[in-house]
Amino acid sequence: MAGKILAANWKMNTIPADGVALVSEILNQWPDNHRAHTIICPPFTHLAFIAELLKNKPSFSLGAQNCHHEKKGAFTGGISVDMLKDLGVEYVIIGHSERRHIFHESEKDITSKVQRVIQAGMHVIFCCGELLKYRKQGLETSIVESQLKSSLGALSDTEMKQVTIAYEPVWAIGTGETASPQQAQNMHKTIRHWISKQWNNDIADKCSILYGGSVKPGNAKALFMQTDVNGGLIGGASLNAQDFKAIYHAMI
Ligand code: PGA
Q1: Which of 92, 90, 67, 86 is nearest to 78 (CA)?
Q2: Rounded to whole angstroms, what are the CA distances from 176 to 51, 90, 204, 235, 236?
Q3: Which CATH number belongs to the domain containing residue 228 in this structure?
Q4: What is the mean pLDDT of the chain?
Q5: What is the pLDDT of residues 34-55, one digit of tens each?
Q6: 236 lines ligand 1 (CB under 6 A)
Q7: Residues near 219 by Cβ (< 8 Å), separated by ≥ 6?
Q8: For every residue of 110-151, which 3-state class applies, written as one string?
Q9: C-alpha to C-alpha distance for 122 and 132, rounded to whole angstroms
Q10: What domain range is 159 assigned to?
Q11: Number of the ligand 1 atom closest to the C-alpha atom of 214
């Protein structure tokens, strides 16, 4: 059985002091029942502060939104996986559509980052998803499968166990438009089937596949009820502690 995961992707929002206040509010009366894992992915500047708050909270992990694909060196502005690991980061989001489309990260960049994170012994939250124009042409499955194949295809069984997948249809991110529960389930099932073909049934069954794209308290339950939806990657709604808690309750 795949573990339930709720991940917060704050993107480029909040200053560190606001981030600390937000996590404190999330932790206050959080139903710490170990039935699901929660990952907070704040901006880099917040990581050290938030690591302190999440210490001794086994059902929480710290995540980063990006990393550099090289180990170290003359890459001004770059953040290495070793830097992140040293701060207590366990998960790194790779392949987010904003990185693909706004920062023009190529499949090659994304694949190198995946490998770097895996080699460091950390977990990847691998994002995939199609643009609206491809869904309109009925090409969503082939787009998502090609993203998976190109960045994850070469991983060994053991390495694949360090991967969580987030299906995020690009047309649903930050738009208020969500995939219907059926659309989400269909794609998640396709992804799980692809994993079982590429590796095996056990790895496929245990891989958490999250849905992301305008998840809100009002639509979370219907999405999370789907058999192959194991949780969510939440953007906008994770910036509000009450909404984030309500989404968590809808999941467990
Ligand atoms: P959203 O973002 O929930 O604001 O749509 C999700 C994401 O980009 O991870």
Answers
A1: 67
A2: 31, 29, 30, 11, 10
A3: 3.20.20.70
A4: 97
A5: 789 999 999 999 999 999 999 9
A6: yes
A7: 178
A8: HHHHHHHHHHCCCEEEEEECCCHHHHHCCCHHHHHHHHHHHH
A9: 32
A10: 5-251
A11: 5
Query: What are 7's two structure tokens?
Result: 């991940």
Give the position, in ligand 1's atom list, of the atom nearest the Cα of 98.
8
* Catalytic annotation, pick one of 98, 130, 140, 168: 168
Number of independent structural domains in the chain: 1
Give residue-wise pLDDT tens across range 216-251.
999 999 999 999 999 999 999 999 999 999 999 999
**CB-based contact 47:81 (threshold 8 Å):** no
Q: Using DSSP, state whether 37 is helix, strand or coil.
A: strand
With DSSP H G I counted as helix, E B as strand and the rest as coil, what are the percentages for the chain, rounded to 5?
45, 15, 35
pLDDT, tens digit (0-9, with 9 covering 90-100), for 85-114: 999 999 999 999 999 999 999 999 999 999
Does 152 sit in the ligand 1 pocket, CB within 6 Å?
Answer: no
Active site residue 96: yes
State the Cα–Cα distance between residues 249 and 145, nearest whole angstrom: 31
Question: From the centroid of its chain, how far is CA 242?
Answer: 20
CB atoms < 10 A from the CB of 137, how many? 12
156: left (phi over 0), alpha (psi -120 to 50) or beta: beta
Q: What are phi and psi of 113, to 5 degrees?
A: -65, -40
Angle at 64 between CA 232 and CA 147, to 5 degrees: 60
Using alpha carbons, select from 233, 150, 232, 145 the residue that is nearest to residue 196.
145
